[in-house]
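== Protein entry: sequence and backbone fold ==
=== Local backbone shapes as whole numbers ===
==== Amino acids and backbone structure tokens ====
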Amino acid sequence: MRIGIFSDVHANLEAMSAVMEAYAREEIDVYYCLGDVVGYGGSPNECSDLVRDIAEVTILGNHDAAVAGRMDYSYYYEAAREALDWHASELTGENMQWLKELPYKHRLEAIGVDLCHGSPVRLEEFEYIFAPDQAAECLPILNDLGHITLIGHSHLCKVFALRPGEVEELPPEDFVLQEGTKYIVSVGSVGQPRDYDNRASYTIYDSDTKTFLFKRIEYDIEGAASKIFEARLERNFGQRLFIGV
């Protein structure tokens, strides 16, 4: 089975549309979204409609939780709060209810895949994993993890190989899962990459060959940024799209 996994759309319809066009050439059997459909961008309803339509399961992200009233975001910086408030006011009732019901985690038991937004430790706290020491916090629950745990949140493509007592960071390149090793993979961001590559990030997992693939696609950044400017959201939310940070 070929699975399309993506995350952190952040209301960027232009990026999400480009990703779906790219996926259409990949013979994907099922799609999963790892959260943060909303936040930052100019198309919260359009992206929610699209993800609701194509994803078998969507995981709750921290921005989704904030917009849906499922977490306190008063400590977020002002521009981020303003974007979340605007998204909450713009979302249709159906999309708001959808966000209110999203799960923190989902397990594909038959193929050993776990899905969550941030670290699988303390799910409701949405902790980051972008360094080996953060991945090492998962070692005490190693036996409870699937063969591969797929996360978003950091907007970075990362691979960590976990074995009893050790964590090894691998390059974010296509790889084949090995027996005796469990993996935590951060799939990057569709709508707001932060690795200085402004192309939208998306991934594929082939459960038959146990092969994980990282993909990137160019999209209409100018169009996405223009919607942010027109909505009078923080201009940097649009400007950063051009440099991928």
In short: The chain has one domain: 2-243. The CA atoms of residues 109 and 146 lie 8 Å apart. The first helix runs from residue 13 to 23.
